[in-house]
Amino acid sequence: MSADLWTVWWAWASFALVLAILEVLAPGFIFLGFAIGAGVVALLLAILGAGGLGGVPIVLVVFAVVSLIAWLILRRSFSLKSGQVKTFDRDIND
What we know:
Shape: elongated
Structural class: mainly alpha
Distance between the termini: 51 Å
């Protein structure tokens, strides 16, 4: 990607969409945090513009921080409670 493409909102929105599709294909909340981060960056770039965020380094830092926070929230929300074990009562072949 060229330096100009890093600050275009639709590129980040497309990246968020691709990551969300990857999450459907490989579930486990791995790509969903990154998709949320890319979506937030796309929204900020659409509202503020590239100059409002301060350029490529700040855009990448915002993406990294928002992705990490989203991933931590998803992990805390959807993980098993401590001490619990996932058990299955019936087999898929029954």
